[in-house]
């Protein structure tokens, strides 16, 4: 299986982004997703800068994919997306049906990110006809559904033509809103947010009133409070025929996580079990994979 | 503008029709629609009665098949589409690409609307559904400002329907997994959000607590209005502040925006609430019918009457209403 680095979901300063991708060059990641997927106001790197970064990284032998916004509301956002789809010259990840439309119109192959609703093989076949070459399973789906879908794809004769990627590590992107919850937490209007997300390189944790971690606020995106971790399911993912495992960048620890997955890939006998942590925001979850509430963690068999 | 009203039962449907709905939308009695609640919705026979009642009074009937099937339950959605077509529904309201593909292939003449759960918020997304499935109308997610709706209406390849009144989803519909994260059931997979089966109320020394699958959603002092523990409307702790971190318990009410929505070219106004009682439906539909008729007669001189707003406020969540995303400051 290949390993991918998902797009950075948080808002980091440019220097941090540059440093991160310099490290990514020398990491075991085979595929690197670039670009802004959450908020059009995050412009430490503008679309042109992301493209230039993609060109400079391409020489290192990684596959570069430019990822796009999940929620496209304004004419300006759509115009920016259109320009990217026309001129990027690299493989694109659609996170909204707008990008699917713009790329398929141009007969360009594309990746469907986790924010595209794909719950069955018939949806995949429809998108495949429009140019889909890889899909990232929606995060709320479980292993039984994935197994069923992969089986149906084989029956439809397109199992070999579509790559399947699974979000395997990181805070799960759960929802998108018109409202910016980071600005709201600071009593700022969205239009005057002062780019506050820059102060929260791992998002802003939200706890229940009895102090259990619940969500992680990231601008207009709401994430899981716990970190999803499918490392213990590595062998199972492999046996099912999953092609790519996605690790979602965090402010720290991403390359250690990648190394752990790489060790599993290189045959380390038993991937480490879920590790309990005394910091509640570092708790792991994997409930979705087993068909349970997403927040649950289950060390179970794999 | 067409007034599209909810019905979770035959009595609610009659209430909607009798009080001035132009169209009523219903769902079948299973997970194929986004209000899959116990005791709600229509079996085949009831759906037939609904259609007859609506048709005989010149009202259109839409069937919502707007959740996302997975391989193990796909046949139910296929059956629902076949049933909706056989029934003679004026439109099927669909979200899933696979279901749209099935409907287009097997029932090419059947009018299709894109459900709000399809989450199309821009012209390019609408264009995809229009080119591939020939959708005639799309219901817009409640994330756009009035200006953004105006810009979209000017170039949309299909008619647009917007939400006018009812419970307010704060997240882009069809792209929210908060409920399954906590309870394993989500709008997309099960047609349920913050399902009642996961709700527990508890009296404690700190106050009355509402929990969803064990997760504390809110805690109320004596005398505080304790609302249903919808996940996004609880009070949480962020940076040591306890507040409605995502959204207050409010309802959407765009009655005052009727003239703007009409001028923009919006084809239809949707009232949310298939889970609501016939009395609620009657009340809300009556007010909206009166308001739309008033706008038709008064035009630019339209102004919402106090008694309408009072009547709507009485049935609103937390007795509060908002323009939601239509008003930029709310965002």
CATH architecture of chain A, by name, is Alpha-Beta Barrel
Q: What share of the residues of chain B lie within helices? A: 25-40%
Strand content of chain B: 15-25%
Mean of the pLDDT scores of chain B?
96
- Rg calc of chain A: 18 Å
How many helices of chain B does DSSP assign? 11
Low-confidence spans of chain B = none
CATH class label of chain A: Alpha Beta
H/E element string of chain B? Answer: EHEHEHEHEHEHEEHHEEEEEEHEHHE
Quote the distance from N terminus to C terminus of chain B.
26 Å
Q: What is the makeup of the main sheet of chain A? A: 8 strands, parallel, barrel
Tell me the radius of gyration of chain B: 20 Å
Q: Provide the CATH topology of chain A.
A: TIM Barrel
Global structural class of chain B: alpha/beta
Q: What oligomerization state is this entry in? A: heterodimer
Question: What does it look like?
Answer:
- The complex is a heterodimer of chains A (302) and B (331).
- Chain A has one domain (2-290): TIM Barrel, CATH 3.20.20.70.
- Chain A is built from 9 helices and 12 strands.
- Chain A has helices at residues 14-25, 47-58, 75-87, 97-105, 121-129, 143-155, 181-185, 234-240, 254-265; strands at residues 2-5, 31-34, 63-67, 91-94, 110-112, 132-136, 163-177, 204-207, 213-218, 221-229, 244-247, 284-285.
- An 8-stranded parallel barrel of chain A has the order 1-2-3-4-5-6-7-11, surrounded by 4 helices.
- In chain A, α3 crosses α4.
- In chain B, strands 1-2-3-4-5-6-7-15 form an 8-stranded parallel beta barrel, surrounded by 6 helices. Chain B has a 3-stranded antiparallel β-sheet with strand order 9-10-11, with no helix packed on it. A two-stranded antiparallel ribbon of chain B has the order 12-13.
- With 331 residues, chain B is of the alpha/beta class.
- In chain B, α1 (10-18) packs parallel to α2 and α1 runs parallel beside α10.
- In chain B, α4 (97-106) links the parallel β4 and β5.
- The radius of gyration of chain B is 20 Å and the shape is globular.
- At the A-B interface, α3, α4, α5, α6 and β7 of A face α4, α5, β8, α7 and β11 of B.
- β7 (163-177) of chain A pairs antiparallel with β8 of chain B, so a sheet runs across the interface.
């Amino acid at each position: 299986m290949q390993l991918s680095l998902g797009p950075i979901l948080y808002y980091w300063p440019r220097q941090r982004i540059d440093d991160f991708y310099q490290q990514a060059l020398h990491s075991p990641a085979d595929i690197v997703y670039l670009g802004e997927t959450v908020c059009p106001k995050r412009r430490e790197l503008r679309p042109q800068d992301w493209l230039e970064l993609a060109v400079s990284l391409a020489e290192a032998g990684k596959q570069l994919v430019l990822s796009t916004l999940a929620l496209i509301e304004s004419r300006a956002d759509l115009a920016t997306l259109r320009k990217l789809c026309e001129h990027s010259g690299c493989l694109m990840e659609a996170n909204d049906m707008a990008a699917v439309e713009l790329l398929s119109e141009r007969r360009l192959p594309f990746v469907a990110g986790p924010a595209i609703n794909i719950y069955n093989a018939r949806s995949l076949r429809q998108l495949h006809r429009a140019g889909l070459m890889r899909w990232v399973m929606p995060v709320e789906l479980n292993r039984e559904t994935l197994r069923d879908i992969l089986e149906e794809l084989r029956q439809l004769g397109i199992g070999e033509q579509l790559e399947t990627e699974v979000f395997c590590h990181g805070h799960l992107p759960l929802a998108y809103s018109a409202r910016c919850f980071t600005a709201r937490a600071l009593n700022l209007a969205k239009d005057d947010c002062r780019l506050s997300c820059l102060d929260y390189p791992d998002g802003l944790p939200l706890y229940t009133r009895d102090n259990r971690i619940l969500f992680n606020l990231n601008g207009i995106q709401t994430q899981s409070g716990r970190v999803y971790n499918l490392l213990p399911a590595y062998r199972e993912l492999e046996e099912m025929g999953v092609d790519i495992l996605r690790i979602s960048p965090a402010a720290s620890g991403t390359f250690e996580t990648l190394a752990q997955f790489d060790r599993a890939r290189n045959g380390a006998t038993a991937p480490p079990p879920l590790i309990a942590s005394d910091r509640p925001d570092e708790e792991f979850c994997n409930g979705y994979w087993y068909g349970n509430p997403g927040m649950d963690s289950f060390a179970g068999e794999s | 503008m067409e007034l599209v009203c909810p019905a979770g039962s035959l009595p609610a449907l009659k209430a909607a029709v009798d009080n001035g709905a132009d169209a009523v939308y219903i769902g079948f009695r299973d997970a194929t629609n986004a209000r899959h609640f116990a005791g709600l919705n229509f079996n085949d026979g009831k759906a037939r009665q609904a259609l007859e009642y609506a048709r005989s009074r010149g009202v259109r009937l839409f069937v919502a098949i707007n959740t996302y099937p997975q391989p193990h339950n796909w046949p139910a959605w296929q059956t629902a589409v076949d049933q909706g077509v056989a029934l003679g529904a004026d439109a099927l309201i669909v979200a899933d690409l696979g279901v749209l593909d099935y409907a287009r292939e097997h029932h090419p003449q059947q009018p299709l609307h894109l459900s709000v759960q399809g989450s199309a918020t821009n012209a390019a997304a609408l264009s995809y559904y229009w080119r591939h499935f020939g959708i005639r109308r799309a219901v817009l997610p409640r994330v756009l400002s009035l200006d953004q709706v105006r810009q979209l209406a000017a170039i949309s390849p299909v008619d647009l329907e917007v939400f006018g009144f009812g419970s307010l989803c704060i997240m882009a519909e069809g792209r929210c997994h908060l409920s399954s994260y906590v309870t394993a059931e989500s709008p997309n997979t099960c047609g349920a959000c913050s399902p009642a089966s996961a709700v527990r109320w508890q009296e404690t020394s700190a106050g009355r607590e509402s929990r969803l699958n064990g997760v504390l959603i809110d805690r109320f002092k004596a005398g505080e209005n304790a609302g249903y523990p919808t996940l996004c409307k609880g009070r949480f702790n962020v940076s040591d502040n306890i507040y409605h971190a995502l959204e207050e318990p409010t309802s959407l009410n765009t009655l005052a925006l009727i003239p703007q929505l009409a001028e923009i070219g919006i084809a239809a106004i949707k009232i949310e609430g298939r889970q609501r009682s016939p009395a609620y439906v009657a009340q809300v539909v009556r007010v909206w019918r009166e308001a739309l008729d008033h706008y038709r007669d008064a035009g630019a001189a339209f102004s919402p009457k106090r008694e309408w707003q009072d009547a709507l406020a009485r049935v609103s969540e937390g007795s509060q209403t908002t323009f939601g995303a239509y008003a930029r400051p709310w965002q």
